[in-house]
Amino acid sequence: MAAPLRLKATSASPGVATGPAYIAEPLAAAASPPSNLSGHAELGNAIKTAIRELQNLAAGPDLEGMDIIEFQIEVLQDPTLTEMAGARIDAGENVAFAWAGTLDGYIRELECSEEERLRARAVDILDIKNRVLSVLTGTSLDDFPAGSIYVGRDMEPSRFLAHDWSAGGGIALYAGSAVGHVALLARSRSVPMVVGVGQFTTEGRQHIEVDGDSGVVVLQTARENATPAQFGHPATSTAPIADNGSLHTADGEQVLLSINVNAPGEVDSIPAATTAGIGLMRSEFAVTSLSDAANEEKQFAIYRRLLDWADGRTVTVRMLDIGGDKPLAGLTGASSLRGVRLLLARPEIARVQARALLRAGIFSNLRVLLPMVTFPSEIDDLRQIYREEASELTRRGVPHGIPPIGMMVEVPAAALMLDRFESADFFSFGTNDLTQYLFASAREDAGFAPHQGRTVPAVLRLLSQAVKLAGGKPVSICGDMASDPSRTADLLAAGIRHFSVAAARLPAIRSAIVGLNADGTKAAGE
Q: What is the reported pTM?
């Protein structure tokens, strides 16, 4: 058996701890109650609630912790912050974005300081920002299992103070500071801690070791006391599946089979090895309010969780497909826009999501999909946002990577002119919207369903033409048509070689593919 991997780090608190890894997750989502308050009053109440929570934490016996909490309370009581956020609210910004934008500017100044102690203060301000956002969003700061090794980019002081360390545990941070507040608290509680490990991949609950004496993280080669996950969908095919989730038609042509995901928890019962990865992650189902859309840390943790599950396989995240008939709670004034048009009209939403995706892009094989694209310039404009945010992350010293950026093909005008979209790295056909707009009839209309079968030939002809216009760039299909085994032959004949389907449909589509030739005809003997 191979020796455990040892990663060099910087010691922040002495001691050695071994336990299951806890990968920092997003805040537990909860629906935000409707509010009749003005933005100013809503923010004022959220700040008061955050101060009360911090005062409860400061009531503990830890004198060092009291000093840190008092600093955070002092910052929250600074009228300058509320005035700056108030000015943004008066300018029309949503209260959550106004607060996050104000604190982000403060955080960036600290992160770029030449003094390490000032740079270490940035995590305190991040803590304050997220605490108030959690109140505005109606969420709570989750604890993690006792005895775990906390693994993340950084850690908020209030999260450290709220955790019960009596059962042991430790901390391993990708970044962090040995002179920061969490390091100080860790030393006062004798909690082993290392910082500056750099990005590394480990599974949740896999046992790892933090050696705060030597400044080392030891990754074990296997989980301890773990039971294999069971795949909850009945197998209807014994077709061999390669490690990359591919299979072959009867005449030997390779086809990729991925899954569609709406929320990160959906992958828990699905072994990644049974798929080529995630072909479509509909981020709007995991980011359900404007406050969520302002929460970069929550989004980053969602994408990171999916990338960890994929274990090197491709994860394709569609940027927020909101607007029109897909409203985002708290968003007003843009009801006629949807998808990429709304993201460009409200760039503050796009920039937060872009930063979270850029930060997640260093972990594995991430791709980004732009929704409802009609014109090539829309891709260029979003790329510019990614370039600007990447430049800012570089200035701040935050690890990141620019992922491939592709487009959903769901507007007929775009499908007919696909050869003009030279800046798109890949294409994914969304047959639900494509069918709706091709036939000028909403899917919800009572008269649409009875005639849906009659629309198929036209959709297939458009798909076949568009695949040819793609010019050899990667092409996939992720709409309902992809999950229908009665259409698999037609889609193969149209040139589709990558299907992304609902997880429950994997066995049926797999069986359909292996019984067909690449041109869609039935294999001999079928």
A: 0.71
